[in-house]
Specification:
The complex is a heterodimer. Chain A is an all-alpha fold. Chain A is about 85% helix and about 0% strand. In chain B, helix 3 packs antiparallel against helix 4. Classes of the chains: A mainly alpha, B alpha/beta.
Amino acid sequence: MRLPRFAASLAVLVILWGIAAAAVHSSTLPSPASVFLFIVQDCLHGDMLVNLGMTLWRVVASFVLAMAVGSAIGLVLGRGRFLDEAFSPWMLTLLNTPALVITALCYIWLGLNEFAAIFAVALNKIPNVAVLLREGVRSFDPALDDMSKVYRFSAWKRLRHIFIPQLMPFLIGAARSGLALVWKIVLVVELLGRPNGVGYAIAYYFQLFDVRAVLGYSVAFSLVMLAIEFVVLQPLDQYARRWRTAAS
Amino acid sequence: MRDAGEPPLLEINIASKRYRGAGRVDLDVIKDLRFSLAQGSVTCLLGPSGCGKTTALRIILGLDRKFEGAVTPPVDSLKLGVVFQDPRLLPWRTVEENIRLAAPSMSPSGLEDILQSLGLSDWRAHRPGELSVGMARRAAVARALSVEPDLLVLDEAFVSLDERGASVLRQYVFGVARARGTAILMVTHNIDEALRHSDRILVLAPRPTHVLESFELAAPLVARDATWMETQRRRFEQVVGATGLPQPPRAIASNHATDPFW
């Protein structure tokens, strides 16, 4: 979706929120203005920037780890039928294990530390990336593979010009869905066992029943993730699909 | 054509090729397919649909190594150029990049020459999705010739082109290959094409395939006029008739195979 249309759609949502807040007139549904005011004040005088920074670091670290490990597993499973048959049940089990269970077990086994938090988030996302990439590898066009063999492409040339371009839509799909999933899991992980971050802050303000602060943190981090989507992921997606656009 | 006594460019000896189907039922596709390719010669494989021509080509190209027999010398030692039925261009690369990936050491002037000759100069910076079927086929031909192959394989390379475009492209491909002394192995359903351009047509049996007859065409290309073509067509029909196969359609002027058997 183009940025102006997206912004217009978001503006409509904020207006509807404002109308609902005015109608309810209760602290359980604060107005958009008061939430944005909280964001500004907490950025200037509170811990919001520190908490956003910590959460963003955990999102980036676990996202990179999950994409790297998940992609490698996906490539191996996609190329080898035996390994796929052997490890698909593991992937399926992990895919269906609740994030909360994985997080709790990681904290118990690895301790309440940063590594456990990032590992838990990555572990939640790895099967998702692996399954998507496995499907990507399975959809490779064997005709192009044959062509590359006949013309004696080196391994690097085949990877760069044959495999990666075919994998790009799957990689970007995994990245976009992954980022959305990862930051939500990071919040759960922070809520359960970290002394800072957006998840920790939301849990703290929840105990105080401060809905304005809960919404403020939620909106602030959503804005950060939307910025990443528009500044990094969408341009990357358009770059990867540029040849399709030209063909249509 | 090679001199007598000159070793062949390639000896193909496929004793057996089987595909394992569902329920572990083996399907014999090729049995005792043996022939050789001489340097600079044009050999045509002509056989019924589904007889195993494409399987044989895959083995010869080194894409399928699960067979009994041998291709000597190993095909890895030869430079190969292939024009497949579909162009198999990388859709995310331009025409020029597609050619350069196959022939990275090609000189800029050599590239320009080949693009110019095939009418692709103005399309060099365009991706395959922007090309017509004919242009994409020409780009595939440009790529195959740009590697200056020892062996050029044409797998129904001129199908789905209009007859005039196909004729022009054939003249160019066979002209360049003959001038360079490149051996050509082609699969076609177009008997006129086979008669006009080949030195030899190998008539293949239905599955499991092998060579039924080797039909030699010794006349120089310039002597292959309408009268010669008609004579050879009759000769060829007699040869096919003697094999017990149904006659291929008499006049396949089109590049589209219309007979379900052939």
